[in-house]
């Protein structure tokens, strides 16, 4: 018999910072996460189902962008006006305000670029490579290539896993140094740890985080528990 269960890995809402938004935890979403967390899932299925979640995350992130009023004429002729002049019915809607771009934190963040492009067709995408400095154990910037007008855009920052928050914090520093204001950055990820969210959101309270799931904790190697293992390894098999 079919049954529904409530998610077991969700942190209590009281501890979630107000700038964090999770996807609605429907049974459908839980089923997608169950597939990608399963260590026996094939690479093909991991790609397919993680892409479905990424698409949902990108759509949700667009809900956080400002819109302005926009009136359009539909092809449906307005009946009352027919005898005067044939013009379409009026629809008072909205349009997006301002330009956006994506910035992926390499290498795993690159996996989210296609999902962003599917939704925002000709979106500009920058890249940032951050790695742990073995001597200092700190996140270190190795490479950044960003759109030249990034300061005038909303930035969707892409990294699938928020563990300690070290790389994401460093990436935001890079965006600041290119003139992007904090409240124009939206950080998108599939799974967050409570520790990473606390670190990140305490440092950047105005920056919004869109996450699919908040897990229990980090282990002593900074892997998210229960997590899904190393996202890059599961995605690229290397
Ligand atoms: N990065 C990953 O890919 N997985 C984790 O659990 C933590 C960081």
From TrEMBL:
Task: State which pathway it belongs to.
Answer: Pyrimidine metabolism; UMP biosynthesis via salvage pathway; UMP from uracil: step 1/1
Q: Where is the signal peptide?
A: none
Q: What is its EC number?
A: 2.4.2.9
Entry keyword annotation includes GTP-binding: yes
What top-level class of enzyme does the UniProt entry assign? transferase
Sorted alphabetically, which Pfam families does this protein's record hold?
UPRTase
What InterPro entries would the database entry show?
Answer: PRTase-like, PRTase_dom
Claim: Transferase is one of the keywords in the record: yes
SUPFAM superfamilies registered for this protein in UniProt? PRTase-like
- What cofactors does the UniProt entry give for this protein? Mg(2+)
| BP GO annotations | pyrimidine-containing compound salvage
Superkingdom field: Eukaryota
Keyword annotations of the record:
Allosteric enzyme, Glycosyltransferase, GTP-binding, Nucleotide-binding, Transferase
- Ranges for domain Phosphoribosyltransferase come to 25-238
GO MF: GTP binding; uracil phosphoribosyltransferase activity
Q: Which family does it belong to?
A: Belongs to the UPRTase family.
Know the name of this protein?
Answer: uracil phosphoribosyltransferase
Q: Which organism is it from?
A: Phellinidium pouzarii
């Amino acid at each position: 018999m079919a049954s529904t269960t409530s998610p077991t890995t969700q942190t209590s809402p009281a501890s979630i910072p107000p700038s964090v938004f999770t996807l609605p935890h429907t049974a459908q979403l839980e089923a997608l996460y169950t597939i990608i967390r399963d260590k026996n899932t094939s690479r093909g299925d991991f790609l397919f189902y993680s892409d479905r979640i990424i698409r949902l995350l990108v759509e949700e992130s667009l809900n956080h962008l400002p819109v302005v009023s926009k009136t359009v004429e539909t092809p449906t002729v307005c009946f009352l006006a027919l005898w005067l002049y044939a013009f379409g019915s009026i629809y008072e809607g909205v349009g997006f305000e301002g330009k956006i771009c994506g910035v992926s934190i390499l290498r795993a963040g690159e996996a989210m670029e296609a999902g962003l492009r599917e939704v925002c067709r000709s979106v500009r995408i920058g890249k940032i490579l951050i790695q742990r400095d073995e001597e200092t154990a700190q996140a270190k910037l190795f490479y950044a290539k960003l759109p030249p007008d990034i300061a005038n855009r909303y930035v969707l920052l892409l990294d699938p896993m928020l563990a300690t928050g070290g790389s994401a914090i460093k990436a935001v520093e890079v965006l600041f140094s290119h003139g992007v204001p904090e409240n124009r950055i939206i950080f998108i990820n599939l799974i967050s740890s409570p520790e990473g969210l606390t670190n990140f959101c305490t440092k950047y309270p105005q920056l919004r985080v869109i996450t699919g799931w908040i897990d229990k904790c980090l282990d002593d190697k900074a892997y998210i528990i229960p997590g899904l293992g190393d996202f890059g390894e599961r995605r690229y098999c290397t």
